[in-house]
Amino acid sequence: MASQDLFEDFKKSKAALEKVHYDMVKYFDEIVRKLSNKGIADVAEELRYKTSPVQASPEEIRVMAQTAAMADVHLEFDDTLAELLYTAKEKKEVTDLFDQEPALIFVGQINCGKSSIINELLGCKALPTSDQPSTARIVRVCYAEEPYCRLVDTHGKTLEEIKMMGKEGNRIPREKIELGPNDRDDPRRVGAIVETGINIEFLKCGITIIDSPGINESEALDNLVKEQLENPLAFVIYVVDGHNLFTKQDREILNEMTSSETDLSIFFVVNKLEPEDRTESSDEEDEPSGHVASVKARKERELEVQNSRKTRVYRRLVQNGHFPSQLPMNQNERFHGLSARRIKQYHALKKKNPEASFEEFADYTKAFERFQNSLKEFAKESLRARIECVCKTLVRVLSRCLDFFIQKATFLKNGKKQILKTLEILLREEQQVHDNIIRDLEDEKRVMDIKELLSDAINGAREDILKEAGDFEYVLTEFTIPSRGHVKEKAAVAYCQDQIQGMVVNKLQGEIKQKLTMMLGSRELFLVHLKDRIKQIQGEIARDNDIPSAALALGKSLLSSYEAQITFSKRDGAALRSIKKLSVRFYKAIRNPIKTIIKTISGEVQVGSKKWKTDVASNALAKVNPSDMAQKIVTSLKQLFCDCHEEFTGEIRKVQDLFDRGETIKDMQRETLLGFAPNLALLEMLAYGVIDRFKFEFPVKGELIRTGAQESVFACDNIKTPEGRPCVVKVVSVASEEVLKDLTLELHNTR
Questions:
Q1: Phi (first) and psi of residue 36, to 5 degrees
Q2: Helix (H) or strand (E) holding 518
Q3: Which candidate, 4, 277, 335, 521, has a CA 20 to 30 Å from the CA of 548?
Q4: Gene Ontology terms, cellular component aspect (predicted)?
């Protein structure tokens, strides 16, 4: 693949991933809006915990989510749900790819020959070179139809327009790259960068070349170089001076680079492999013209020098952990040796005499050609690795959310089935308990037990009732009792008598209810537990439906709820009617219509005296017949329990019907969650498509294998599995976007 094709393919892949990213952000916002619905709050909270950096156990997640939903609150998080679905770190991993362009960054010590290598790659002398070291600025070189050059500050603002030099108008003046004495006192100019655009074929592919100044020249320049290295699409070419070999400073520079950038890939070049002076190799001027043997001998000596220098540098790199020890130097495509000076000489001679072979430069040109090919492959691998990394991040985010929604929807479906089974079990359990209590109440022994219970209740409450009667204060609306507590009217006496007797009734009722609750305690505990379970199940019914009152029916049959049902007089249910009947019978049994005898002397009754009040209460207690009351209580309880049982059974059938019709919160939740899946699966497939195309290339259809109603299968001529097995191409007819989404969901489940 040509360089231009390589980078063009990269641009297309980057554009595709950028669209996937922005569609993800948009769709996650839509998901969050839908999950803000009260009916699906518990799922939203569960998803928060699933994706939160602080991980909890599945049981903790379930309890916390249910608690949040039952309380009708959203738990507070430092991040929004959208940020938890697609974290800031994950977004940065992805968007870094979109914000930068591929760049070859040449790094190395001062005067190691970085600019010379760049010029040979470009095929022109765009950058000034010199054997004299000088402090220089960073230079960014990119493609432009019309050449330009300018000095810009760290914010991209142009400080100076620079006129290009040379016949082609593509050479940067040396003085604009070097830092002058006046520049060092101006922070803006010290941190300024030279940006240039030139019309060079090599740059048409879209890559930027960055020539960095020598490391450790100044702190400001070093920081600028570090900023350039933060580009995730930066391909670092580290240049080692072949004359100085691998120095302590080289080691320190590389250690600092790799310590801050753990995934930084570096391409190494040893420059200046040509002999440094006559002690290493004789110059061609000392050889007789046309002396083939001497030229051959000189080439062999130069080759020995090259190998010696490369080997010494390579060993140092292996020792410092930049290459594995088992990888031979000559097989390492990320390590090269060359001579930019010799290549420059070759091109100059070739330009003068295109027909000449210049055999003495063959090793240098061959090494440079290998360097160019390997550099292109290095860029290709680096770009693919970066694309693959971003694809994996996108797929990880999408798969994580997609799996959660699918698993949760499946759980909700299974949960619905389980609830229907549970309702049948609860019906059977309630029926069994009801049958047992009715048989129990029909047993004569139970009537005797209740009679004893009533006797105990009356005797146990007598002392408190008489004490309260003595201290009783009337609530009078029609009559007034004089301060001395004597009244004449018969109606007033009866009115006071009724109030004291009513107090006795209430006290006895409370005592009897307490005793009955203790007697039937196991039934009460079962019904309380059953009521809670039914109430929880009823909570699953969608809010726009009439909620069945199965739990309420159970509550009516609870003995402990009598007081509550009496208090709420608006509801004239079975339990309330039974209690009213019981109260009336009880009251009639103990009511003693006193034939008030007006004292012949005073003609008054002392209703305000403690003795009169306690006498009335004692007389009322004496009129209670435990045997008669026991039979009436049993009859009323049987009627109450049967009425509530029938009501409960009917309401449970309504609950089952709503679940069967899918009119529950879980059905709504499941429908909502499954609605997310196709769009997420489509985005996932698009991300997978980019990585698969980079990994396997676009499949080429071969011979038709079979055809069906909606698909055709072909042999694949250009792709094999990692095991070397042939692949096939499946062409599926997609009639609509919805069909495509369903297909991508199927692909997700089969990957």
A1: -75, -10
A2: helix 490-519
A3: 521
A4: cytoplasm
Rg (CA), the chain: 47
Output phi, psi for 303, to 5 deg. -65, -40
How many CB atoms within 10 Å of residue 419? 17
692 vs 228, residue with greater confidence: 692
pLDDT tens figures, 318-344: 998 888 999 999 899 999 999 998 899
Above 50 in pLDDT, residue 166?
yes
Structure tokens at 106: 């040449």
Q: Under 8 Å CB-to-CB from 613, ≥6 apart: which residues?
A: 469, 470, 472, 500, 607
Query: What token pair was written down for 68?
Result: 């949040």
Cβ-contact 267, 235 below 8 angstroms:
yes
DSSP 605: B
**How far apart (Å, rounded) are the C-alpha atoms in residues 470 and 462?**
12
Tell me the C-alpha distance between 129 and 122, whole Å.
14
Residue 7 CA to residue 142 CA, distance in Å, equals 14
Q: Give the tokens for residue 486.
A: 């004597």
| Pairwise pLDDT comparison (145 vs 295), residue with the higher score | 145
100 DSSP assignment: -
Token pair, residue 34, equals 């839908």
- CA–CA distance, 615 with 607 (Å, rounded to integer): 10
Q: How many C-beta neighbours within 10 Å does residue 500 have? A: 23
| 658-682 tens-digit pLDDT | 777 665 656 666 677 777 888 888 8
Contact 64, 45 (CB under 8 A): yes
Question: Coil, strand or helix: which one is 541?
Answer: strand
151: which strand partners? 160, 194
| Secondary structure class of 487 (helix, strand, coil) | strand
Number of H helices, E strands in the chain: 23, 12
**Residues near 583 by Cβ (< 8 Å), separated by ≥ 6?**
505, 509
The neighbouring-strand residues paired with 148 are: 197
pTM for the full model? 0.60
Whole-number Å distance between alpha carbons of 404 and 418: 20
> What is the SS3 assignment for 654?
helix
Tell me how far CA of residue 457 lies from CA of 282, 469, 517, 519, 617, in angstroms: 128, 17, 13, 12, 15
Query: Quick count: other Cβ atoms within 10 Å of Cβ 107?
Result: 24
Q: Residues with Cβ < 8 Å from 729, sequence gap 6 or more?
A: 699, 700, 701, 702, 713, 714, 715, 716
Q: Give the dihedral of Cα atoms 582, 588, 591, 596; nearest 10 deg.
A: 150
- Going by C-alpha positions, the residue among 402, 403, 409, 397 that lies closest to residue 43 is 409
> Residue holding tokens 């109606």?
491
End-to-end CA distance of the chain: 30
- Give the closest residue to 501 by CA, choosing from 607, 621, 596, 582: 621
Burial (CB < 10 A; 0-12, 13-18, 19+), residue 632, is middle
Token couple for 100: 């930068």
Identify whether the C-beta of residue 337 lies closer than 8 Å to the C-beta of residue 366.
no
- Token pair for 533: 């379970």
Q: Which of 265, 277, 270, 233 is CA-nearest to residue 250? A: 270
Phi and psi angles of residue 2, each rounded to the nearest 5 degrees, phi first: -70, 155
**Quick one: which H or E segment has residue 590?**
helix 574-590
What are the φ/ψ torsions at residue 149 (nearest 5 degrees)?
Answer: -160, 135
Alpha helices in 153-215 (DSSP H): 174-177, 187-190
pLDDT at 76 over 50: no
Largest CA distance in the chain: 169
Burial class (CB in 10 A: 0-12, 13-18, 19+), 244: middle
